[in-house]
Inverse folding.
């Protein structure tokens, strides 16, 4: 709202109001702008009755200027393609690691591994590291498709993007190892993976605008790493965010890794009997 807006309005100069909207999620932005325009018209009807009668409904007494930043054309691929990176990593990383240890338990090879002097942390780290390379290869392929097939811009640092991706991969791999430590067979590990993947898909803001969900759904969604990863990856690719702007959504993922790793180590020790 510019300075002197009320005086310009009273003089009939038709001042401008600026609305700067974050359009990285076009569906959420469209709903918000539509609600704002409706509120604006309701305000006109109740507060500017005299001026509206003076104008005889020909035009509004002020101009509403809307800037859709970071995605002015409202292209859905700018929102979906970076989000698909998080969805694919969540599904593949958790599933591969969850089935990894349970497969060895069923085949009897885990007994040989547990007989070695390796600690539970060393065993879990050894199971996680090979899949990190697989996850980075997946990310490289998705980024290539985003750039050359869908023309998604890349305004931020590529090195920072891979650092955020590495953090997210570690969160998913840690959770997969924990599932494999809890499950007794591959079927149980698969069921745990699906039970985690579906809430992540529905409550992370990938399919529905996050702020449009009920409060309880937002509380659950804030616990999920995918929720924060979507904000991080879209911020880097579409906004060019720096490290300082990414910290608010990075520390919840670090906290998630620490909590899940603690549960996994405790459960893994119980399997040593």
């Amino acid at each position: 709202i510019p300075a002197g807006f009320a005086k310009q309005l009273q003089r009939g100069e038709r001042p401008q109001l600026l609305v700067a909207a974050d359009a990285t999620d076009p569906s959420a932005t469209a709903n918000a702008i539509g609600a704002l325009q409706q509120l604006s018209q309701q305000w006109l009807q109740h507060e500017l009755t005299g001026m509206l009668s003076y104008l005889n409904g020909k035009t509004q007494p002020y101009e509403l200027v809307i800037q859709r930043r970071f995605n002015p054309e409202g292209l859905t691929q700018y929102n979906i393609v970076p989000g698909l990176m998080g969805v694919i990593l969540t599904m593949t990383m958790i599933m591969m690691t969850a089935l990894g240890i349970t497969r060895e338990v069923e085949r009897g090879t885990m007994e040989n591994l547990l007989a070695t002097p390796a600690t539970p942390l060393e065993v879990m780290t050894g199971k996680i590291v090979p899949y990190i390379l697989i996850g980075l290869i997946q990310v490289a392929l998705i980024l290539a498709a985003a750039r050359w097939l869908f023309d998604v811009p890349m305004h931020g640092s590529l090195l920072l993007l891979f650092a955020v991706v590495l953090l997210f991969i570690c969160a998913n791999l840690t959770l997969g190892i924990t599932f494999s430590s809890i499950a007794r067979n591959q079927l149980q590990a698969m069921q745990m993976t699906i039970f985690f993947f579906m809430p992540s898909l529905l409550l992370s803001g990938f399919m529905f605008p996050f702020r449009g969900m009920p409060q309880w759904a937002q509380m659950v969604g804030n616990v999920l790493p995918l929720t924060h990863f979507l904000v991080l990856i879209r911020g880097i690719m579409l906004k060019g965010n720096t490290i300082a702007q990414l910290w608010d959504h990075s520390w919840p993922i670090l906290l998630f890794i620490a909590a899940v790793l603690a549960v996994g180590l405790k459960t893994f020790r119980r399997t040593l009997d």
